[in-house]
Amino acid sequence: MTAEVKTELVAGILTVTLARPDKKNALTNEMYGAIADAIEGASAGNVRVILVQGEGDSFTAGNDLGEFAAQAAGSGPAKRHVERLIHALANTNVPVVAAVQGKAVGVGTTMLLHCDYVLLSEDAQLITPFVNLALVPEAASTYLLPLRIGHARAFEMFAFGAPVSATNALAWGIANRVVPNAELRSEARRIAEMIAAKPSGSVTAMKQLMRDVARLVSQIDAERAIFSQRLQSAEAREAFAAFAEKRTPKFH
Ligand code: COA
């Protein structure tokens, strides 16, 4: 249990709210665990829709970089809940709606590729800085992103980690709609209610047919093996130290 992830089940809609706004909802191991619990519980129970959102001005700044630094130094948690969360997202047949404002960094963007309906606010920016951190992309995004937006755009997003605007994310097919910031939460709720009103058995069966879960899981596991090696690299340690010291990393 952590206060930094709030869950609420109302009328078949499980809302999962990232609630660490002072750190741009950067995700700790404990937060990953809480989200994974929620999604696993929803998959096993009678939840009709999962709605993921974040408090404050950013959806999430991705993995907590202090925790990455600890892992790189060999003092991270024995059990990394991020892996459970990514598997839960890949495995769930419950439809997932995401409401994204401000920055969606790292897993904040790659998790959207597992969501079924993505709403962006006008100020949303999708950022995938894995290579800048001397890591590799995860959550099956090395498979899903090129499939979704084409190799050229995916390579550029991954290699440079430059922010992708809401307009481009919509045009490229990463999102369903862009709405004014003030309407994001209410619109996401409305979409979740529309999905929840559909015959749930049909929706979950459709979602299952639309996705090759075995393929996703094999990519997730392949990425994870390389990611774990990269996390221990001198380049990654330099990237995390640079973030903590608010300076540009030096890789040469
Ligand atoms: N891990 C830990 N803390 C983070 C964080 C992260 N991923 N992202 C932001 N924070 C913290 C900052 O250290 C800062 O803390 P402080 O107030 O104690 O100094 C606070 O959140 C606000 O962040 P700040 O950088 O001041 O906000 P910003 O609006 O200028 O920039 C981001 C927002 C998300 C662009 C920027 O914080 C950033 O690049 N974060 C790192 C993202 C990242 O690389 N994630 C890993 C992906 S794999």
Automatic annotation (TrEMBL):
Its main location: other. This is Enoyl-CoA hydratase. One of its GO terms (molecular function) is delta(3)-delta(2)-enoyl-CoA isomerase activity. SUPFAM superfamilies: ClpP/crotonase. Coiled coil: none annotated. Keywords: Isomerase, Peroxisome. It is found in: Peroxisome. Pfam families: ECH_1 (PF00378).
